């Protein structure tokens, strides 16, 4: 069979991979995008809450409050769940996660991510305009609701901290909440509205729109098994159904499955997954939800997607490929129904996805140290949708020899030794 040749292979057609392919294509590279699915955005990029989180300076770090840790340890919290049999494999990673979550570590991760966070919405806006899908971006921001005066006070304090980095937020009382979301019910201590973040009412559709743009501009998208990747004379090859696909450079952007490629190549990168679930329901009657709304004290989020209201859960610590255990959906759905008028489910069962996480809650973006032409772009934790396009720009700068818009050292794989 004939070989298909390109300049770059991008492995993974989620938001991160498609965005990297587009930015490399814009710089004149002949790119082939490869995924196990025949369509883009079929995995983690489909099932998220749809937020472009340009207002989240500090990443999701391990809690330092003992009472909160104890609550999670009892495994009855709606926002965190774990599989007991998965803990031995998670403990070394959890230890590193805890150490990186110190005040100094959290600040270090936040400052490293800040240049990406600040450009995240701008990069999406450019691609959305080029793809011709302005209807997939809503400028509503999102609302974080509090039932406890204590958690509200803590978040207001965090907002004051974040304002020093240019973040804006509006503190809401009960009347303000009712004015913005008249169909919500509950005894709320207050809320914060972050107006700046973008909202994508169809995240999987946006990934597909970006892939369509890539193909329209001459890119090729093929279904193949990334685990067949091997290095040969002059570059890299992946086995395709009609022959090998060969390129000088390869980008590993497989999200939570990236370890299936980097481990056989000899890299010991501490990648773990936080699983998450969602279920989609129709609104009841004429009820309308205008913003994504996080019920902060109860650990779930409601988002007004194009196809109904999406209820998303917090984190589940389990083996990536273990059978689904959507107990967080079971715990939060009655609470969500009490807060907002929800009707029938739209999807037959709860969807499950996996967030690729590293213990400092920063992605790996950059060159592999021991293999010429191998590049990493994975580990975007809860912010794959947010950071996909801006990470693609940074990676493309590095691959094509352009001075990067920010120092990429904090995202280097060498930080893990």
Describe, in plain words, how this protein is organized in 3D.
This protein is of the alpha/beta class and 417 residues long. It has a domain at 4-46 and 204-270 and 360-416: FAD/NAD(P)-binding domain. Helices cover 32% and strands 25% of the residues. It has 10 helices and 21 strands. The chain has helices at residues 15-26, 66-73, 87-100, 103-131, 149-163, 174-180, 203-216, 259-262, 327-339, 384-400, and strands at 4-11, 31-35, 51-52, 80-82, 142-146, 170-172, 190-194, 198-199, 220-223, 230-232, 235-240, 243-252, 272-283, 293-295, 300-305, 308-313, 315-317, 342-345, 351-357, 364-367, 374-378. The strands form 4 sheets. Strands 5, 6, 7, 13, 14, 15, 16, 18 and 19 form a 9-stranded mixed β-sheet that branches. Strand 11 (235-240) and strand 12 (243-252) form a beta hairpin. Helix 1 packs parallel to helix 7 and helix 1 (15-26) runs parallel beside helix 10 (384-400). The longest helix is centred in the first third of the chain and has 29 residues, at 103-131. The two termini are 41 Å apart. The model has no long low-confidence stretch (mean pLDDT 96).
Q: From the structure provided, what is the oligomeric state, counting identical versus distinct chains?
A: single chain
Spans of at least 5 consecutive residues whose pLDDT stays below 50 are none
Our measurement of the CA-to-CA distance between the termini, rounded to an integer number of angstroms, reads: 41 Å
Helix content: 25-40%
Sum up the overall morphology in one term.
globular
Supply the number of helical segments: 10
CATH superfamily of the domain at 4-46 and 204-270 and 360-416: FAD/NAD(P)-binding domain
């Amino acid at each position: 069979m004939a070989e298909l040749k390109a300049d770059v292979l991008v492995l993974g057609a989620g938001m991160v991979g498609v965005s990297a392919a587009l930015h490399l294509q814009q710089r004149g590279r002949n790119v082939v995008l490869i995924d196990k699915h025949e369509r883009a955005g079929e995995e983690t990029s489909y099932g998220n809450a749809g937020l472009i989180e340009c207002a989240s300076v500090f990443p999701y770090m391990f809690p330092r409050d003992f009472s909160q840790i104890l609550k999670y340890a009892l495994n009855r919290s709606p926002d965190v769940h774990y599989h007991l049999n998965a803990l031995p494999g998670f403990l070394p990673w959890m230890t590193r996660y805890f150490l990186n979550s110190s005040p100094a570590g959290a600040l270090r991760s936040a400052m490293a991510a800040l240049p990406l966070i600040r450009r995240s919405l701008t990069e999406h806006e450019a691609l959305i305009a080029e793809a011709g899908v302005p209807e997939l971006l809503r400028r509503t921001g999102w609302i974080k609701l509090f039932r406890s005066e204590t958690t509200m006070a803590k978040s207001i304090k965090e907002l004051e901290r974040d304002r020093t980095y240019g973040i804006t937020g509006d503190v809401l009382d009960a009347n303000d909440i009712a004015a913005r979301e008249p169909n919500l019910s509950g005894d709320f201590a207050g809320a914060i509205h972050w107006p700046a973040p973008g909202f994508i009412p169809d995240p999987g559709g946006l990934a597909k729109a970006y892939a369509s743009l890539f193909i329209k501009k001459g890119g090729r998208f093929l279904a193949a098994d990334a685990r067949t990747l091997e290095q040969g004379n002059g570059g890299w090859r992946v086995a395709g159904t009609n022959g090998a696909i060969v390129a000088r450079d390869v980008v590993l952007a497989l999200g939570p499955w990236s370890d299936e490629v980097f481990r056989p190549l000899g890299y010991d990168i501490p990648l773990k997954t936080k699983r998450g679930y969602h279920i989609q329901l129709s609104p009841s009657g004429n009820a309308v939800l205008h913003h994504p709304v996080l019920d902060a004290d109860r650990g779930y989020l409601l988002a007004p997607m194009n196809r109904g209201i999406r209820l998303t859960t917090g984190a589940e610590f389990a083996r990536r490929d273990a059978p689904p255990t959507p107990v967080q959906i079971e715990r939060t759905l009655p609470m969500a129904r009490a807060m907002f008028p929800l009707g029938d489910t739209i999807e037959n069962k709860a969807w499950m996805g996996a967030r690729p996480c590293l213990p400092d809650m920063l992605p790996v973006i950059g060159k592999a140290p021991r293999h010429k032409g191998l590049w990493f772009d994975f580990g975007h934790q809860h912010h794959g949708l947010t950071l996909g396009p801006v990470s693609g720009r940074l990676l493309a700068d590095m691959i094509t020899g352009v001075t990067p818009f920010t120092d990429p050292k904090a995202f280097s794989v060498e930080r893990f030794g």
